[in-house]
## 1
Amino acid sequence: WPGQMCIRDRSWTCRCWWTDRPVRPASGSVVSGGTRVAGSGGVRETLRVADLTYFTGPMDCGKSTLALQVAYTESSAGRQGRLFTMLDRSGGSSITSRIGLTAPAIEVNESLDFWRYVVTELTGGRRVDFLVCDEAQFYSPAHIDQLARVVDELQIDVFCFGILTDFRTELFPASGRLVELCDRMEQLQVRPRCWCGEPATH
């Protein structure tokens, strides 16, 4: 399996995972992430770069709802993913939204290693095209580093959802690391109201 896999760094160079030598997959081969190399044009034109995306906003703005929508949309396109959460409002291993949507998820704890989990899935012959990570503010910075490695070295999309700051307007450690490492950060457009009637900020 490692000999079949290649990665792309940010300079648009395809390199072998363990030798760091430039490689070019054969025409018609499929690299991690499900991208097929077509013809002799090479990877430069055909290999899609995966993204680490951070969707953030205050409480009650619809982050978990969007997480479930992203998982549904990706799955509808024939992609296979994994859902993760930590300290969900339901108290169980699931992603739940305030409007009643829910889906089973893997509970994140300190011992979970995202890199090891995904590599184990892939080497076991199980397809992984994307990860949806809800309540990401409760993860550890090490978890975020692992997710970034999954994106950069395995070319698997990761969608994280979480609160940026606490009530003191201080960054959650994992949220701070996501801001540093994510390829794109998006602020949710739904703006809940504070008890005072003003738009909520955290």
## 2
Amino acid sequence: IWGNETSHHIFVEDVDGDGEPELIREITGLWNRVTVWKQGGAPTGSENYLDPIDFTRGPQEGRPIYNIHFGPGPAPRLAINNEFIRETQPILIRDLEVADLHGDGRKQIFVALASGWIKAFDGRCRPLWSTPVTAPPTVLKVVKSTAGQMRLVAGGEDGNVFVLDGRGQLVGRAEVDGCVTTLGEWPDGFVVTTACGMVQAMQ
């Protein structure tokens, strides 16, 4: 944690289709963003939900080509340590997933926000769709359905489990006991675990 900002996920995937892997990570806390980095450390794409900046002049070392941030988080407090921040400060970006939900060979970036939205972006961080859910999502996972279709599963604070298709449309919904903490793959669907200790397989 630095300056009330932290990162919980790092993916190394080819998200822009150039045959070379990129690094995808989020920063959440005082300021919130998702960035795609090229090899060599120069960011090539970033999502900013406050003030879009036009970088049509081309890539610039150390600056994103596309820049849209998710905006500010909680204001920093003085005389606190990192453990206090981790335990008490709300996290805007709850989860991050990188996978090919469309089945076209290109991977997308999915973000779960504490505001109750699930957002999808292409490999250059351009928005694809946004879907609201009834409770703040806690975890995301792309799984294959029994029919062979790829689906995005999101678990919520209120125990709801949402299943979305490649267009962000809600195609399934279930409810479990407690806040969803983990989603895992299963041969015939997926597995849900909750803060109450429940483990349940779903299709």
## 3
Amino acid sequence: SMIVRGYASMGPKPSMSILANMILAYDLVVQEDGGVLRFIKRGTESTGTILEADLSAHEGDAVDPPPKFAISDQPDTGLPNEINIDYFDANDNFQRGSQKARRSVTDQLPRVDNMDIPAVFTASEAQEIANRVLYQTWQQRSICQFSLGPKYITINENDILTIPVDGQLHKVRVLEVNRGANFVHEVKGLLTESETTASDGA
């Protein structure tokens, strides 16, 4: 269960800025279903498996069909090597506290992301948030794109899909689904995990 001990908001603020802090702090993902937003704990999302033969869906007899599974990596130089979390400390009379997670670097200049979450945490909880955000940022830096046919109409943002491609088994978090003509779905996702599948001769 999740406990929100308190949240400080000075004056009116957009609700999305408050929700964004809570989503980050409590490791939630958001899905829209029929005009209703659902907040889901990461790790409990809907899952599904895509058949490799269903990849590269396109309209009609396309001269240049889309790639089966395209992957692009974000350069390491664009990623933070330190995360600082500012918060209110539950064990220090609600004074402001700060916890950081740092990645070992050698010749790189420090790239720091400072995140102010005006909610109440213990020091260990804030440290856990910093560690998780840094880990997820580096682990999930590969973006993939693929297209699917009408049978996958129920796929939504933040679903977790297992996709076999050329001897590799990929786990993908859906970021965006564009539903085009003839119900061809162009999907953009975050590559969260990949592994080599055993060959028939293994």
